[in-house]
Amino acid sequence: MSRSQSHERTTHFLFLAPAFLILGSVLLYPGISVLWLSLHRRLLIFDISRFVGLDNFAYLMQDARFWNAFGNTLYFTTVSVSAELLLGLGVAVLLHRAFRAKGLMRTVLLIPWAVPTVVSAKMWEWLYNPDFGLLNYLLGLRINWLGAPALALHAAILMDVWKTTPFVALLLMAGLQTIPGELYQAARIDGASPWMVFRTITLPLLKPVILVVLIFRTLDAFRVFDAVYVLTGGGPANTTETLSIYAYKVLFQTLQFGYGSAIAVTVFLFVGLTSLLYVRQLRGVTT
Amino acid sequence: MKRFGFFAGLLLLTLFCLGPLVWQLITAFKPTAELTTLPPLLPSRPTLNHFAAIFAGHPFLRIIANSFVVAVACTVLSLAVGSLAAFALARLPIKRKGLILALVLCGSMFPPIATVSPLYMIIRTLAVRDTLLALILTYTSFALPLTIWVLTHFFRSIPRELYAAARIDGCTAFQSFRMVMLPLAVPGLVATAILVFIYSWNEFLFALTFTATAASRTIPVGIALFPGLHEVPWGEIAAASVVVTLPLLGLVFIFQRRIIEGLTAGAVKG
Protein backbone atom coordinates (compact mmCIF):
# COMPACT_ATOMS: atom_id res chain seq x y z
CA MET A 1 0.00 0.00 0.00
CA SER A 2 2.65 2.45 0.99
CA ARG A 3 4.62 1.55 -2.09
CA SER A 4 1.73 2.18 -4.44
CA GLN A 5 1.10 5.42 -2.56
CA SER A 6 4.60 6.62 -3.18
CA HIS A 7 4.20 5.52 -6.77
CA GLU A 8 1.08 7.68 -7.00
CA ARG A 9 2.96 10.60 -5.55
CA THR A 10 5.65 10.23 -8.19
CA THR A 11 2.98 10.25 -10.91
CA HIS A 12 1.44 13.37 -9.42
CA PHE A 13 4.79 15.07 -9.44
CA LEU A 14 5.30 14.12 -13.09
CA PHE A 15 2.25 16.19 -14.01
CA LEU A 16 3.88 19.29 -12.54
CA ALA A 17 7.47 18.55 -13.53
CA PRO A 18 7.49 19.99 -17.09
CA ALA A 19 5.94 23.26 -15.90
CA PHE A 20 8.37 23.50 -12.99
CA LEU A 21 11.28 22.81 -15.32
CA ILE A 22 10.37 25.59 -17.74
CA LEU A 23 9.33 28.10 -15.09
CA GLY A 24 12.41 27.31 -13.03
CA SER A 25 14.97 27.57 -15.80
CA VAL A 26 13.54 30.34 -17.98
CA LEU A 27 11.75 32.51 -15.39
CA LEU A 28 12.93 31.84 -11.84
CA TYR A 29 16.64 31.32 -12.56
CA PRO A 30 16.95 34.55 -14.61
CA GLY A 31 14.86 36.30 -11.94
CA ILE A 32 17.42 35.39 -9.28
CA SER A 33 20.34 35.79 -11.62
CA VAL A 34 19.44 39.42 -12.30
CA LEU A 35 19.89 40.18 -8.59
CA TRP A 36 23.35 38.64 -8.71
CA LEU A 37 24.20 40.53 -11.91
CA SER A 38 23.12 43.80 -10.33
CA LEU A 39 25.90 43.38 -7.76
CA HIS A 40 28.55 43.34 -10.48
CA ARG A 41 30.30 45.76 -12.71
CA ARG A 42 29.91 43.91 -15.93
CA LEU A 43 30.77 45.21 -19.37
CA LEU A 44 29.86 42.69 -22.01
CA ILE A 45 32.19 43.88 -24.76
CA PHE A 46 35.39 43.87 -22.66
CA ASP A 47 34.55 40.71 -20.74
CA ILE A 48 34.86 42.68 -17.54
CA SER A 49 33.08 41.20 -14.55
CA ARG A 50 33.83 42.34 -11.05
CA PHE A 51 31.80 42.00 -7.85
CA VAL A 52 31.06 45.49 -6.53
CA GLY A 53 28.45 44.85 -3.86
CA LEU A 54 25.82 47.56 -3.72
CA ASP A 55 27.87 50.13 -5.66
CA ASN A 56 25.44 50.09 -8.59
CA PHE A 57 22.56 50.94 -6.29
CA ALA A 58 24.55 53.67 -4.58
CA TYR A 59 25.25 55.16 -7.99
CA LEU A 60 21.57 54.79 -8.88
CA MET A 61 20.59 57.05 -6.00
CA GLN A 62 22.64 59.91 -7.47
CA ASP A 63 21.73 59.24 -11.09
CA ALA A 64 19.48 62.09 -12.21
CA ARG A 65 18.46 60.17 -15.32
CA PHE A 66 17.27 57.27 -13.14
CA TRP A 67 15.09 59.59 -11.02
CA ASN A 68 13.77 61.20 -14.17
CA ALA A 69 12.81 57.77 -15.54
CA PHE A 70 11.31 56.81 -12.18
CA GLY A 71 9.20 59.99 -12.15
CA ASN A 72 8.06 59.43 -15.74
CA THR A 73 7.09 55.85 -14.99
CA LEU A 74 5.19 56.81 -11.86
CA TYR A 75 3.38 59.63 -13.68
CA PHE A 76 2.55 57.43 -16.66
CA THR A 77 1.26 54.68 -14.36
CA THR A 78 -0.82 56.92 -12.09
CA VAL A 79 -2.44 59.01 -14.79
CA SER A 80 -3.10 56.24 -17.30
CA VAL A 81 -4.41 53.73 -14.76
CA SER A 82 -6.75 56.27 -13.10
CA ALA A 83 -8.05 57.45 -16.46
CA GLU A 84 -8.57 53.88 -17.64
CA LEU A 85 -10.37 52.89 -14.47
CA LEU A 86 -12.72 55.90 -14.46
CA LEU A 87 -13.50 55.71 -18.17
CA GLY A 88 -13.73 51.91 -18.06
CA LEU A 89 -16.18 52.11 -15.16
CA GLY A 90 -18.31 54.58 -17.09
CA VAL A 91 -18.34 52.38 -20.18
CA ALA A 92 -19.10 49.24 -18.14
CA VAL A 93 -22.06 50.90 -16.39
CA LEU A 94 -23.30 52.26 -19.71
CA LEU A 95 -23.21 48.85 -21.37
CA HIS A 96 -24.56 46.91 -18.40
CA ARG A 97 -28.07 46.46 -19.77
CA ALA A 98 -29.76 44.30 -22.36
CA PHE A 99 -29.54 45.57 -25.93
CA ARG A 100 -29.38 43.91 -29.28
CA ALA A 101 -25.87 44.80 -30.40
CA LYS A 102 -24.24 43.85 -27.07
CA GLY A 103 -22.18 40.98 -28.51
CA LEU A 104 -20.97 43.20 -31.32
CA MET A 105 -20.09 45.94 -28.83
CA ARG A 106 -17.98 43.46 -26.84
CA THR A 107 -16.11 42.57 -30.02
CA VAL A 108 -15.50 46.26 -30.72
CA LEU A 109 -14.11 46.68 -27.20
CA LEU A 110 -11.75 43.70 -27.67
CA ILE A 111 -10.21 45.10 -30.83
CA PRO A 112 -7.85 47.75 -29.35
CA TRP A 113 -6.66 45.14 -26.82
CA ALA A 114 -5.86 42.66 -29.62
CA VAL A 115 -3.96 45.11 -31.83
CA PRO A 116 -0.21 44.50 -31.44
CA THR A 117 1.29 47.19 -29.20
CA VAL A 118 3.92 48.02 -31.81
CA VAL A 119 1.24 48.48 -34.46
CA SER A 120 -0.72 50.75 -32.14
CA ALA A 121 2.41 52.79 -31.40
CA LYS A 122 3.15 53.26 -35.11
CA MET A 123 -0.50 54.09 -35.71
CA TRP A 124 -0.52 56.80 -33.04
CA GLU A 125 2.81 58.16 -34.23
CA TRP A 126 1.13 58.71 -37.60
CA LEU A 127 -1.98 60.23 -35.99
CA TYR A 128 0.27 62.60 -34.00
CA ASN A 129 2.36 63.57 -37.05
CA PRO A 130 2.72 67.38 -36.85
CA ASP A 131 2.40 67.99 -40.60
CA PHE A 132 0.17 65.25 -42.00
CA GLY A 133 -1.41 63.76 -38.87
CA LEU A 134 -5.16 63.34 -38.60
CA LEU A 135 -5.27 64.74 -35.06
CA ASN A 136 -3.88 68.16 -35.98
CA TYR A 137 -6.09 68.24 -39.06
CA LEU A 138 -9.27 67.53 -37.10
CA LEU A 139 -8.36 70.00 -34.36
CA GLY A 140 -7.17 72.61 -36.84
CA LEU A 141 -3.87 72.89 -34.97
CA ARG A 142 -0.21 72.48 -35.76
CA ILE A 143 1.13 70.95 -32.59
CA ASN A 144 4.23 68.76 -32.47
CA TRP A 145 2.68 66.26 -30.03
CA LEU A 146 5.65 63.93 -29.78
CA GLY A 147 8.29 66.64 -30.11
CA ALA A 148 7.23 68.92 -27.27
CA PRO A 149 8.66 67.86 -23.89
CA ALA A 150 5.50 68.87 -22.01
CA LEU A 151 3.20 66.95 -24.35
CA ALA A 152 4.97 63.74 -25.36
CA LEU A 153 4.31 61.78 -22.15
CA HIS A 154 0.65 62.77 -22.28
CA ALA A 155 0.47 61.65 -25.89
CA ALA A 156 1.83 58.28 -24.77
CA ILE A 157 -0.75 58.15 -21.99
CA LEU A 158 -3.57 58.85 -24.45
CA MET A 159 -2.36 55.98 -26.61
CA ASP A 160 -2.34 53.67 -23.60
CA VAL A 161 -5.82 54.84 -22.59
CA TRP A 162 -7.06 54.01 -26.10
CA LYS A 163 -5.57 50.52 -25.97
CA THR A 164 -6.56 49.49 -22.44
CA THR A 165 -9.74 51.32 -21.43
CA PRO A 166 -11.89 48.90 -23.46
CA PHE A 167 -10.12 45.97 -21.82
CA VAL A 168 -10.76 47.42 -18.35
CA ALA A 169 -14.40 48.00 -19.30
CA LEU A 170 -14.79 44.36 -20.36
CA LEU A 171 -13.41 43.04 -17.07
CA LEU A 172 -15.64 45.42 -15.08
CA MET A 173 -18.68 44.38 -17.17
CA ALA A 174 -18.00 40.76 -16.24
CA GLY A 175 -17.82 41.89 -12.62
CA LEU A 176 -21.12 43.76 -12.87
CA GLN A 177 -22.80 40.60 -14.08
CA THR A 178 -22.02 38.87 -10.78
CA ILE A 179 -24.10 41.44 -8.85
CA PRO A 180 -27.62 40.01 -8.33
CA GLY A 181 -30.29 41.97 -10.22
CA GLU A 182 -32.70 41.81 -7.25
CA LEU A 183 -30.52 44.27 -5.38
CA TYR A 184 -31.11 46.87 -8.08
CA GLN A 185 -34.85 46.15 -8.16
CA ALA A 186 -35.10 46.51 -4.40
CA ALA A 187 -33.19 49.78 -4.51
CA ARG A 188 -35.46 51.10 -7.26
CA ILE A 189 -38.57 50.18 -5.27
CA ASP A 190 -37.11 52.04 -2.31
CA GLY A 191 -36.79 55.05 -4.61
CA ALA A 192 -32.99 55.33 -4.62
CA SER A 193 -31.47 57.67 -7.20
CA PRO A 194 -29.13 56.20 -9.85
CA TRP A 195 -26.16 57.83 -8.15
CA MET A 196 -27.13 56.33 -4.77
CA VAL A 197 -27.56 52.91 -6.36
CA PHE A 198 -24.11 53.24 -7.89
CA ARG A 199 -22.53 54.33 -4.61
CA THR A 200 -24.24 51.90 -2.26
CA ILE A 201 -24.62 48.78 -4.43
CA THR A 202 -22.45 48.81 -7.55
CA LEU A 203 -19.26 50.26 -6.15
CA PRO A 204 -18.97 48.19 -2.92
CA LEU A 205 -19.87 44.91 -4.65
CA LEU A 206 -17.56 45.61 -7.54
CA LYS A 207 -14.65 46.46 -5.28
CA PRO A 208 -12.85 43.07 -5.49
CA VAL A 209 -12.93 43.17 -9.30
CA ILE A 210 -11.82 46.81 -9.31
CA LEU A 211 -8.86 45.88 -7.12
CA VAL A 212 -7.85 42.99 -9.39
CA VAL A 213 -8.09 45.26 -12.44
CA LEU A 214 -5.99 47.84 -10.59
CA ILE A 215 -3.29 45.23 -9.84
CA PHE A 216 -3.14 44.07 -13.44
CA ARG A 217 -3.07 47.55 -14.86
CA THR A 218 -0.65 49.08 -12.36
CA LEU A 219 1.88 46.30 -12.85
CA ASP A 220 1.49 46.43 -16.61
CA ALA A 221 1.79 50.20 -16.80
CA PHE A 222 4.78 50.30 -14.48
CA ARG A 223 6.81 47.96 -16.66
CA VAL A 224 5.74 49.70 -19.89
CA PHE A 225 8.31 49.33 -22.62
CA ASP A 226 7.20 48.61 -26.18
CA ALA A 227 4.37 51.14 -26.49
CA VAL A 228 6.45 54.15 -25.45
CA TYR A 229 9.76 52.89 -26.90
CA VAL A 230 8.29 52.58 -30.37
CA LEU A 231 6.24 55.78 -30.11
CA THR A 232 8.99 58.14 -28.91
CA GLY A 233 12.13 56.13 -28.18
CA GLY A 234 12.15 57.86 -24.79
CA GLY A 235 12.48 61.38 -26.19
CA PRO A 236 12.25 64.29 -26.52
CA ALA A 237 15.03 65.04 -24.03
CA ASN A 238 14.23 61.83 -22.10
CA THR A 239 10.82 63.19 -21.09
CA THR A 240 9.15 59.89 -21.97
CA GLU A 241 11.95 57.61 -20.85
CA THR A 242 10.44 55.03 -18.50
CA LEU A 243 12.44 52.75 -16.19
CA SER A 244 12.17 49.82 -18.58
CA ILE A 245 13.36 51.96 -21.48
CA TYR A 246 16.27 53.35 -19.47
CA ALA A 247 17.24 49.85 -18.33
CA TYR A 248 17.00 48.59 -21.90
CA LYS A 249 19.24 51.37 -23.20
CA VAL A 250 21.87 50.83 -20.50
CA LEU A 251 21.78 47.08 -21.12
CA PHE A 252 21.77 46.88 -24.88
CA GLN A 253 23.02 50.21 -26.16
CA THR A 254 25.88 50.79 -23.71
CA LEU A 255 26.21 47.10 -22.78
CA GLN A 256 26.59 47.83 -19.04
CA PHE A 257 24.98 44.65 -17.84
CA GLY A 258 25.59 45.20 -14.14
CA TYR A 259 24.18 48.71 -13.94
CA GLY A 260 21.35 47.94 -16.35
CA SER A 261 20.38 44.95 -14.24
CA ALA A 262 20.35 47.18 -11.15
CA ILE A 263 17.78 49.45 -12.85
CA ALA A 264 15.74 46.41 -13.83
CA VAL A 265 15.86 45.21 -10.22
CA THR A 266 14.22 48.44 -9.05
CA VAL A 267 11.31 47.75 -11.43
CA PHE A 268 11.18 44.26 -10.00
CA LEU A 269 11.13 45.55 -6.41
CA PHE A 270 8.42 48.11 -7.11
CA VAL A 271 6.26 45.52 -8.85
CA GLY A 272 6.74 43.08 -5.97
CA LEU A 273 5.89 45.66 -3.30
CA THR A 274 2.85 46.90 -5.20
CA SER A 275 1.46 43.39 -5.61
CA LEU A 276 1.95 42.71 -1.90
CA LEU A 277 0.10 45.91 -1.04
CA TYR A 278 -2.82 45.09 -3.34
CA VAL A 279 -3.04 41.46 -2.24
CA ARG A 280 -3.32 42.60 1.39
CA GLN A 281 -6.08 45.02 0.37
CA LEU A 282 -7.81 42.28 -1.57
CA ARG A 283 -7.74 39.92 1.42
CA GLY A 284 -9.39 42.61 3.49
CA VAL A 285 -12.15 42.94 0.91
CA THR A 286 -12.94 39.30 0.26
CA THR A 287 -12.89 37.97 3.83
CA MET B 1 -34.31 61.04 -25.20
CA LYS B 2 -32.60 58.65 -22.81
CA ARG B 3 -32.45 56.07 -25.58
CA PHE B 4 -30.91 58.60 -27.89
CA GLY B 5 -28.23 59.37 -25.31
CA PHE B 6 -27.46 55.67 -24.98
CA PHE B 7 -26.99 55.20 -28.70
CA ALA B 8 -24.92 58.35 -28.94
CA GLY B 9 -22.71 56.81 -26.24
CA LEU B 10 -22.39 53.57 -28.21
CA LEU B 11 -21.50 55.48 -31.36
CA LEU B 12 -18.88 57.56 -29.57
CA LEU B 13 -17.36 54.45 -28.02
CA THR B 14 -17.20 52.66 -31.37
CA LEU B 15 -15.61 55.70 -32.97
CA PHE B 16 -13.02 55.87 -30.18
CA CYS B 17 -12.15 52.17 -30.45
CA LEU B 18 -12.11 51.84 -34.22
CA GLY B 19 -11.31 55.34 -35.48
CA PRO B 20 -7.50 55.12 -35.25
CA LEU B 21 -7.56 51.72 -36.97
CA VAL B 22 -9.80 52.94 -39.75
CA TRP B 23 -7.37 55.80 -40.36
CA GLN B 24 -4.53 53.29 -40.62
CA LEU B 25 -6.60 51.29 -43.10
CA ILE B 26 -7.28 54.39 -45.20
CA THR B 27 -3.58 55.31 -45.10
CA ALA B 28 -2.64 51.87 -46.40
CA PHE B 29 -4.67 52.46 -49.56
CA LYS B 30 -3.59 56.07 -50.20
CA PRO B 31 -1.23 56.87 -53.08
CA THR B 32 2.10 58.11 -51.70
CA ALA B 33 1.53 61.64 -53.03
CA GLU B 34 -1.70 61.97 -51.04
CA LEU B 35 -0.11 60.91 -47.76
CA THR B 36 1.41 64.36 -47.35
CA THR B 37 -1.73 66.35 -48.13
CA LEU B 38 -4.79 66.81 -45.97
CA PRO B 39 -7.53 67.11 -47.19
CA PRO B 40 -8.63 64.91 -48.92
CA LEU B 41 -9.31 62.42 -46.14
CA LEU B 42 -10.08 59.58 -48.52
CA PRO B 43 -7.77 58.48 -51.34
CA SER B 44 -8.83 59.77 -54.75
CA ARG B 45 -7.79 56.47 -56.29
CA PRO B 46 -7.19 53.64 -53.77
CA THR B 47 -3.95 51.81 -54.53
CA LEU B 48 -2.44 48.45 -53.59
CA ASN B 49 1.09 49.74 -54.15
CA HIS B 50 2.03 49.77 -50.45
CA PHE B 51 0.95 46.17 -50.06
CA ALA B 52 2.96 45.16 -53.11
CA ALA B 53 5.98 47.07 -51.77
CA ILE B 54 6.10 45.33 -48.37
CA PHE B 55 6.13 41.91 -49.96
CA ALA B 56 8.53 42.81 -52.76
CA GLY B 57 11.23 44.84 -51.06
CA HIS B 58 11.53 43.30 -47.60
CA PRO B 59 11.71 39.79 -46.16
CA PHE B 60 8.20 40.41 -44.89
CA LEU B 61 6.84 36.94 -45.69
CA ARG B 62 9.73 35.39 -43.81
CA ILE B 63 9.00 37.62 -40.82
CA ILE B 64 5.33 36.67 -40.82
CA ALA B 65 6.27 33.00 -41.08
CA ASN B 66 8.64 33.41 -38.10
CA SER B 67 5.91 34.98 -36.01
CA PHE B 68 3.52 32.24 -36.98
CA VAL B 69 5.95 29.44 -36.06
CA VAL B 70 6.83 31.08 -32.74
CA ALA B 71 3.21 31.77 -31.80
CA VAL B 72 1.98 28.30 -32.73
CA ALA B 73 4.89 26.49 -31.05
CA CYS B 74 4.55 28.57 -27.89
CA THR B 75 0.79 27.98 -27.80
CA VAL B 76 1.13 24.22 -28.21
CA LEU B 77 3.94 23.98 -25.66
CA SER B 78 2.17 26.19 -23.11
CA LEU B 79 -1.06 24.27 -23.45
CA ALA B 80 0.56 20.84 -23.23
CA VAL B 81 2.69 21.68 -20.21
CA GLY B 82 0.14 24.01 -18.64
CA SER B 83 -2.84 21.66 -18.88
CA LEU B 84 -0.89 18.86 -17.16
CA ALA B 85 0.04 21.16 -14.30
CA ALA B 86 -3.39 22.78 -14.09
CA PHE B 87 -5.12 19.41 -13.98
CA ALA B 88 -2.82 18.28 -11.17
CA LEU B 89 -3.46 21.48 -9.23
CA ALA B 90 -7.21 21.24 -9.74
CA ARG B 91 -7.83 17.55 -9.04
CA LEU B 92 -4.85 15.57 -7.70
CA PRO B 93 -4.17 15.33 -3.97
CA ILE B 94 -1.02 17.40 -3.85
CA LYS B 95 0.28 19.13 -0.75
CA ARG B 96 0.47 22.93 -0.61
CA LYS B 97 -1.55 23.46 -3.77
CA GLY B 98 -2.51 26.96 -2.74
CA LEU B 99 1.12 27.89 -2.25
CA ILE B 100 2.13 26.44 -5.64
CA LEU B 101 -0.67 28.31 -7.36
CA ALA B 102 0.26 31.54 -5.59
CA LEU B 103 3.89 31.13 -6.68
CA VAL B 104 2.79 30.48 -10.26
CA LEU B 105 0.72 33.65 -10.12
CA CYS B 106 3.77 35.55 -8.86
CA GLY B 107 5.48 34.36 -12.04
CA SER B 108 3.00 36.30 -14.12
CA MET B 109 4.04 39.48 -12.33
CA PHE B 110 7.70 39.19 -13.37
CA PRO B 111 8.63 42.29 -15.34
CA PRO B 112 10.19 41.16 -18.65
CA ILE B 113 12.90 43.79 -18.32
CA ALA B 114 14.12 42.02 -15.16
CA THR B 115 14.83 38.72 -16.88
CA VAL B 116 16.04 40.02 -20.22
CA SER B 117 19.70 40.53 -19.21
CA PRO B 118 20.33 37.06 -17.68
CA LEU B 119 18.39 35.38 -20.49
CA TYR B 120 20.45 37.26 -23.05
CA MET B 121 23.64 35.93 -21.49
CA ILE B 122 22.31 32.38 -21.33
CA ILE B 123 21.24 32.60 -24.96
CA ARG B 124 24.66 33.89 -25.97
CA THR B 125 26.40 31.11 -24.07
CA LEU B 126 24.21 28.43 -25.64
CA ALA B 127 24.68 30.07 -29.05
CA VAL B 128 20.93 30.18 -29.72
CA ARG B 129 20.78 33.91 -30.36
CA ASP B 130 18.83 34.77 -33.50
CA THR B 131 16.97 31.47 -33.43
CA LEU B 132 13.26 30.89 -33.03
CA LEU B 133 13.91 28.42 -30.22
CA ALA B 134 15.10 31.17 -27.89
CA LEU B 135 11.86 33.09 -28.40
CA ILE B 136 9.64 30.03 -28.11
CA LEU B 137 11.10 29.01 -24.74
CA THR B 138 11.05 32.55 -23.35
CA TYR B 139 7.46 33.18 -24.41
CA THR B 140 6.36 29.86 -23.01
CA SER B 141 7.82 30.73 -19.61
CA PHE B 142 5.92 34.02 -19.61
CA ALA B 143 2.70 32.47 -20.91
CA LEU B 144 2.73 29.49 -18.54
CA PRO B 145 1.62 31.26 -15.33
CA LEU B 146 -1.47 32.66 -17.06
CA THR B 147 -2.13 29.32 -18.79
CA ILE B 148 -1.93 27.36 -15.55
CA TRP B 149 -4.03 29.91 -13.68
CA VAL B 150 -6.85 30.05 -16.24
CA LEU B 151 -6.88 26.29 -16.93
CA THR B 152 -6.93 25.43 -13.22
CA HIS B 153 -10.17 27.42 -13.01
CA PHE B 154 -11.60 25.54 -15.97
CA PHE B 155 -10.62 22.11 -14.60
CA ARG B 156 -12.13 23.01 -11.24
CA SER B 157 -15.44 23.78 -12.93
CA ILE B 158 -15.64 20.20 -14.26
CA PRO B 159 -17.60 18.09 -11.71
CA ARG B 160 -15.29 16.21 -9.37
CA GLU B 161 -17.39 13.03 -9.78
CA LEU B 162 -16.36 12.60 -13.42
CA TYR B 163 -12.71 12.25 -12.50
CA ALA B 164 -13.53 9.97 -9.56
CA ALA B 165 -15.67 7.74 -11.80
CA ALA B 166 -12.88 7.41 -14.35
CA ARG B 167 -10.46 6.35 -11.62
CA ILE B 168 -12.91 3.78 -10.23
CA ASP B 169 -13.34 2.36 -13.74
CA GLY B 170 -9.63 1.64 -13.71
CA CYS B 171 -8.12 4.59 -15.52
CA THR B 172 -4.74 5.83 -14.35
CA ALA B 173 -4.47 9.49 -13.41
CA PHE B 174 -2.99 10.27 -16.82
CA GLN B 175 -5.63 8.30 -18.71
CA SER B 176 -8.46 10.06 -16.91
CA PHE B 177 -6.76 13.36 -17.65
CA ARG B 178 -6.39 12.63 -21.35
CA MET B 179 -9.67 10.83 -22.02
CA VAL B 180 -12.10 12.46 -19.60
CA MET B 181 -10.86 15.81 -18.36
CA LEU B 182 -9.11 17.18 -21.45
CA PRO B 183 -12.08 16.76 -23.84
CA LEU B 184 -14.33 18.49 -21.31
CA ALA B 185 -11.91 21.38 -20.94
CA VAL B 186 -11.84 22.20 -24.67
CA PRO B 187 -13.60 25.58 -24.24
CA GLY B 188 -10.99 26.57 -21.67
CA LEU B 189 -8.17 25.29 -23.86
CA VAL B 190 -9.43 27.31 -26.83
CA ALA B 191 -9.72 30.47 -24.71
CA THR B 192 -6.22 30.02 -23.31
CA ALA B 193 -4.75 29.13 -26.69
CA ILE B 194 -5.98 32.39 -28.19
CA LEU B 195 -4.63 34.45 -25.30
CA VAL B 196 -1.21 32.80 -25.58
CA PHE B 197 -1.20 33.09 -29.37
CA ILE B 198 -1.98 36.82 -29.25
CA TYR B 199 0.66 37.38 -26.56
CA SER B 200 3.38 35.64 -28.60
CA TRP B 201 2.31 37.31 -31.83
CA ASN B 202 2.58 40.76 -30.21
CA GLU B 203 5.61 40.47 -27.88
CA PHE B 204 8.35 43.00 -28.56
CA LEU B 205 11.10 43.32 -25.91
CA PHE B 206 12.52 39.78 -26.13
CA ALA B 207 12.02 39.70 -29.88
CA LEU B 208 14.02 42.91 -30.17
CA THR B 209 16.92 41.68 -28.04
CA PHE B 210 17.17 38.03 -29.04
CA THR B 211 16.86 38.44 -32.81
CA ALA B 212 19.43 39.97 -35.11
CA THR B 213 18.41 39.19 -38.69
CA ALA B 214 15.40 38.21 -40.75
CA ALA B 215 16.25 34.61 -39.84
CA SER B 216 14.37 34.97 -36.58
CA ARG B 217 12.86 38.47 -36.62
CA THR B 218 9.17 38.58 -35.77
CA ILE B 219 6.42 40.97 -36.85
CA PRO B 220 6.60 43.56 -34.03
CA VAL B 221 10.35 44.01 -34.55
CA GLY B 222 9.89 44.06 -38.31
CA ILE B 223 7.35 46.87 -38.03
CA ALA B 224 9.25 48.85 -35.38
CA LEU B 225 12.45 48.76 -37.45
CA PHE B 226 10.71 49.32 -40.75
CA PRO B 227 13.42 50.38 -43.19
CA GLY B 228 12.96 53.78 -44.81
CA LEU B 229 15.52 55.17 -47.19
CA HIS B 230 14.95 58.92 -46.81
CA GLU B 231 11.66 59.38 -45.05
CA VAL B 232 9.35 57.26 -42.95
CA PRO B 233 7.34 55.06 -45.35
CA TRP B 234 3.96 55.66 -43.67
CA GLY B 235 1.99 53.97 -46.42
CA GLU B 236 4.01 50.78 -46.19
CA ILE B 237 3.93 50.77 -42.41
CA ALA B 238 0.15 51.14 -42.55
CA ALA B 239 -0.11 48.31 -45.09
CA ALA B 240 2.10 46.05 -42.94
CA SER B 241 0.03 46.95 -39.87
CA VAL B 242 -3.16 45.99 -41.65
CA VAL B 243 -1.72 42.67 -42.80
CA VAL B 244 -0.50 41.59 -39.36
CA THR B 245 -3.55 42.85 -37.47
CA LEU B 246 -6.15 41.16 -39.68
CA PRO B 247 -5.52 37.61 -38.39
CA LEU B 248 -5.98 38.87 -34.83
CA LEU B 249 -9.21 40.66 -35.71
CA GLY B 250 -10.38 37.40 -37.26
CA LEU B 251 -9.69 35.58 -34.00
CA VAL B 252 -11.49 38.29 -32.03
CA PHE B 253 -14.57 38.12 -34.27
CA ILE B 254 -14.82 34.34 -34.14
CA PHE B 255 -13.88 33.76 -30.52
CA GLN B 256 -15.07 36.96 -28.79
CA ARG B 257 -17.01 35.04 -26.14
CA ARG B 258 -14.18 32.59 -25.41
CA ILE B 259 -11.53 35.30 -25.18
CA ILE B 260 -13.55 37.29 -22.66
CA GLU B 261 -14.19 34.08 -20.71
CA GLY B 262 -10.45 33.45 -20.58
CA LEU B 263 -9.61 37.02 -19.63
CA THR B 264 -12.15 37.12 -16.83
CA ALA B 265 -11.57 33.57 -15.54
CA GLY B 266 -8.74 34.75 -13.35
CA ALA B 267 -9.83 38.30 -12.68
CA VAL B 268 -13.47 37.99 -11.68
CA LYS B 269 -13.85 34.50 -10.29
CA GLY B 270 -10.37 34.56 -8.73
How much helix, percentage-wise, in residues of chain B? over 70%
Structural class of chain B: mainly alpha
Major beta-sheet overview of chain B: none
Q: Shape of chain A from CA axes?
A: globular
Share of helical residues of chain A = over 70%
- In whole angstroms, the N-to-C terminal distance of chain A is 40 Å
**Total E-strand runs of chain A:** 2
The biggest sheet of chain A, with number of strands, parallel, antiparallel or mixed sense and barrel status, is: 2 strands, antiparallel
CATH class of chain A: Mainly Alpha
Give the number of domains of chain A: 1
- From the N-terminal CA to the C-terminal CA of chain B, the straight-line distance is 39 Å
| CATH superfamily label of chain A | MetI-like
Mean pLDDT of chain A: 91
Brief overview:
The complex is a heterodimer of chains A (287) and B (270). Chain A is an all-alpha fold and 287 residues long.
3D structure, described in words:
The complex is a heterodimer of chains A (287) and B (270). In chain A, helix 9 (194-222) runs antiparallel to helix 12 and helix 11 (243-252) runs antiparallel to helix 12 (257-286). Chain A is an all-alpha fold. Chain A has helices at residues 2-37, 55-62, 64-95, 102-114, 117-127, 134-139, 149-177, 181-189, 194-222, 226-232, 243-252, 257-286; strands at residues 40-43, 48-51. The model of chain A has no long low-confidence stretch (mean pLDDT 91). A two-stranded antiparallel ribbon of chain A has the order 1-2. Chain B is mainly α and 270 residues long. In chain B, helix 1 packs across helix 13, helix 4 runs parallel beside helix 7 and helix 5 (97-107) crosses helix 7. Chain B has a domain at 70-216 and 239-267: MetI-like fold. The model of chain B has no long low-confidence stretch (mean pLDDT 90). Helix content of chain B is 76%, strand content 0%. Chain B is globular and about 75 Å long. At the A-B interface, helix 1, helix 4, helix 5, helix 7 and helix 9 of A face helix 1, helix 4, helix 5, helix 6 and helix 7 of B.
